Amino acid sequence: MLGKRKxxxxxxxxxxxxxxxxxxxxxxxxxxxYDNFVCEDDEEESVxxxxxxVCQNIEKIDEIISNNLSGxxxxxxSKPALSIMRISVFEIVFSKLHPxxxxxxxxxxxxxxxxxxxxxxxxxxxxxxxxxxxxxD
Length: 137
Fold this sequence. Notes:
globular, mainly alpha
């Protein structure tokens, strides 16, 4: 069993990779890229749910993120940081996961995959989203 953190890590890697393969459909990209992961069946479903959930709701997710940035535009956020925030916003808004859990997991992913300072920036943006109740739109 991978656990939720490992599921998020795999979903992050898929979402991040898809940013550079937008000429493919999410389905074809997933089928090609998922071969690099070793998961149990129930874990695969969780990874798949996160990946396709983010892909299907990307416009709304990006709108929520954009509306909660202070002094930045979404296109200036690094691709790893943006991918992590997209997962967290999806979990909070569409999966109804408690914001504190998702934000903590996002910060941990950022410490592993992002440049210095990104974890605190991601924490601030996601906390702002939770506080502004944008997650309930």
